[in-house]
């Protein structure tokens, strides 16, 4: 996969993209990162990338010319057709299914927003996708792009040491992940659940499934809105509801 990032602050990216799993993914040849300052594509003498909005109002708006020209330039570096992604508080919420879908692409181009927003011709004619990472406003789209890149690249074949991890973790199966424990089995009087020490893999799998459902029920009930429950899951949900009514 080739990932291009168009940003006004390219110095923000090397530490993130060259570290941890993202750096190892590039070392393995699973991905290559290319950071471009789209200010380099301005045609005005002051190198401006923003201007006042037509009709008045607060803030400055990113002009279309530098970004259209920058995308044209990076497109020419690779024949594969890219997805062009805007980071924007107006975009649809970025979720795990989006990361899984985008991890199957050959090319991604991220455009990091700044100021009051984009000239509307950019999302309408230049971008293929527009994503938000949450209902809050940031100073720019760089951190959002980094978060999305991290979630996508870790899913590329061979990047994670244990491929099963990407399948069983939070959100991949519509539930939050179950609790984890490691040594020691008794730490300051806090005990690891007996079932995890039993060696009975069937019981352990059932416990993990139940705990995932319970954690999702308590912390993110919105994720269960469209879930089709099994008979066993319905029994567990009734159990969770009774415990909650008793304040447990």
Question: What key phrases describe this protein's structure?
Answer:
about 250 residues, alpha/beta, Alpha/beta knot, Trp Operon Repressor, Chain A, 2 domains, three-stranded mixed beta sheet, elongated
Characterization of this structure:
This protein is of the alpha/beta class and 248 residues long. It has two domains: 152 residues, 3-Layer(aba) Sandwich (Alpha/beta knot); 73 residues, Trp Operon Repressor, Chain A (Orthogonal Bundle). 35% of the residues lie in helices and 17% in strands. The strands form three sheets. The protein has a five-stranded parallel β-sheet with strand order 2-1-6-5-8. Strands 3-4-7 form a three-stranded mixed β-sheet. A hairpin with a 2-residue loop joins strand 9 and strand 10. The protein is elongated, with a radius of gyration of 23 Å. The termini are far apart.
Helix and strand topology:
Elements: E1 2-7, H1 14-17, H2 20-27, E2 32-37, E3 50-51, E4 61-62, H3 64-75, E5 83-93, H4 96-102, E6 107-112, E7 117-118, H5 121-126, E8 129-132, H6 142-153, H7 165-168, E9 186-187, E10 190-191, H8 201-219, H9 231-245
Helix pairs in contact: 4-6, 8-9
Largest sheet: 5 strands, parallel
- The CATH topology label of the largest domain is Alpha/beta knot
Given helix and strand content, the structural type is alpha/beta
Radius of gyration, taken over Cα atoms and rounded to an integer in Å: 23 Å
Distance between the amino and carboxyl termini? 48 Å
Strand order of the largest sheet: 2-1-6-5-8
Number of helices: 9
Shape: elongated
The H-and-E topology, N to C, reads as: EHHEEEHEHEEHEHHEEHH
Just name the CATH architecture of the largest domain.
Answer: 3-Layer(aba) Sandwich
């Amino acid at each position: 996969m080739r990932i291009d990032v168009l940003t006004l602050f390219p110095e923000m990216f090397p530490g993130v993209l060259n570290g941890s799993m993202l750096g190892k993914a590039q070392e393995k040849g699973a991905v290559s990162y290319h950071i471009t300052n789209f200010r380099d594509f301005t045609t005005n003498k002051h190198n401006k990338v923003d201007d006042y909005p037509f009709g008045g109002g607060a803030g400055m708006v990113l002009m279309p010319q530098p970004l259209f020209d920058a995308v044209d330039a990076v497109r020419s570096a690779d024949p594969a057709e890219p997805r062009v992604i805007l980071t924007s508080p107006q975009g649809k919420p970025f979720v795990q299914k989006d990361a899984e879908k985008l991890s199957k692409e050959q090319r991604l181009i991220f455009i990091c927003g700044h100021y009051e927003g984009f000239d509307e011709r950019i999302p309408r004619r230049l971008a293929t996708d527009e994503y938000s990472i949450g209902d809050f406003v940031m100073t720019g789209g760089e951190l959002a792009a980094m978060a999305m890149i991290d979630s996508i690249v870790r899913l590329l074949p061979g990047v994670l040491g244990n491929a099963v991890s990407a399948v069983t973790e939070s959100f991949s199966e519509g539930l939050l992940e179950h609790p984890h424990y490691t040594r020691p089995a008794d730490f300051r009087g806090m005990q690891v659940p007996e079932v995890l020490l039993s060696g009975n893999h069937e019981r352990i799998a059932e416990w993990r499934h139940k705990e995932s459902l319970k954690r999702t029920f308590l912390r993110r009930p919105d994720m269960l809105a469209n879930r089709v429950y099994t008979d066993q899951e319905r029994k567990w949900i009734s159990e969770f509801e009774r415990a909650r009514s008793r304040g447990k």
